[in-house]
Q: What sequence folds into this?
């Protein structure tokens, strides 16, 4: 555990280098055409069936916190996503997909690979979900922010709201992620990767929808998404690392 924590810290401190460098470990790549979205099989269902213990998950999260921060806030520059408050279902699916080579994440793969125990995965996920969503995060910054957000809102409400919901709260039992509080640059990168077929585990209905958006439109949608606020789930000022809800 000590060794892997030291590795996490060294990678977290040199994100540009580790992101640009060669993959830390080879993942068994799976082609998009062979992927059945969110098939309910393997370690994923095992972890989903278990009741996670947020208190026990705190220790397991320590290694994750080196990159995603102890608060779960990630980094405003979008290198490390904000995780706090994310649905356990989404966390478990993404972790399982990364481990299975369905979603490339060479920076994190060595750590995802270590989390083999279904109960521990359920516990760490429960802990992350219990964290409040930091209100301060990476947003679109430009003189035209108000226009971008307004344009993005129109597009979001037309085609994205059905799954990601009005405040970006997603749908837990359908594996639709929370978007509120997420960093602008991370959102833009993920949407571009999903549109261009590089995030192979993505929901096919979303892929079909997002295919027709150009880069400028994705900028506007990301600007809007990063402005979303989920009432009751956000951290109170100065309380970033404290769990929002008792479990
Ligand atoms: C060395 C840095 C690093 C460590 C340590 C790390 N991660 Fe990550 N994680 C990342 C990066 C980088 C991404 C985003 C990759 C991308 O852009 O697709 C990520 C993405 C994720 C995602 C996907 C988020 C989403 O919104 O889809 C989850 C879930 C996640 N990490 C959970 C964890 C957990 C749990 C741990 C601890 C076991 C952990 N991470 C440890 C770097 C790290
Ligand atoms: C049919 C439901 C559905 C629709 C419609 C949909 N999404 Fe998604 N979206 C998902 C799911 C599910 C994921 C998680 C990826 C996966 O593993 O399948 C996701 C992932 C994302 C992510 C990445 C989140 C993260 O934490 O990494 C973003 C950003 C996003 N969607 C934005 C959008 C936008 C913008 C639209 C509208 C143009 C949209 N989505 C429409 C279901 C949907």
A:
């Amino acid at each position: 555990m000590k060794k892997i924590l030291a590795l996490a810290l060294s990678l977290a401190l040199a994100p540009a280098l580790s992101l640009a460098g060669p993959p830390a470990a080879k993942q068994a790549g799976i082609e998009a055409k062979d992927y059945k979205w969110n098939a309910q099989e393997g370690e994923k269902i095992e972890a989903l069936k278990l009741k996670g213990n947020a208190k026990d998950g705190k220790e397991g999260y320590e290694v994750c916190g080196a990159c995603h921060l102890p608060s779960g806030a990630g980094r405003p520059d979008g290198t490390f996503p904000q995780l706090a408050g994310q649905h356990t279902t989404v966390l478990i699916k993404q972790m399982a997909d990364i481990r299975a080579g369905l979603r490339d994440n060479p920076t994190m793969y060595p750590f995802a690979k270590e989390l083999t125990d279904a109960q521990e995965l359920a516990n760490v996920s429960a802990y992350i979900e219990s964290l409040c969503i930091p209100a301060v995060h990476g947003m679109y910054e430009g003189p035209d922010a108000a226009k971008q957000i307004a344009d993005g809102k129109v597009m979001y409400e037309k085609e994205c709201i059905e799954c990601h919901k009005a405040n970006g709260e997603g749908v837990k039992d359908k594996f639709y992620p929370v978007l509120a509080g997420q960093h602008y640059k991370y959102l833009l990168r993920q949407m571009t990767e999903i549109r261009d077929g590089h995030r192979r585990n993505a929901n096919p209905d979303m892929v079909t929808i997002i295919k027709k958006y150009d880069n400028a439109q994705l900028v506007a949608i990301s600007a809007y998404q990063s402005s979303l606020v989920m009432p009751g789930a956000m951290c109170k000022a100065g309380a970033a690392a404290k769990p929002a809800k008792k479990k």
Confidence is low (pLDDT under 50) at residues 15-28. The pocket of heme C (ligand 1) is lined by residues 8, 11-12, 63-64, 66-68, 79-81, 83, 91, 94-95, 105, 107-108, 111, 115, 124, 177, 189 (CB under 6 Å).
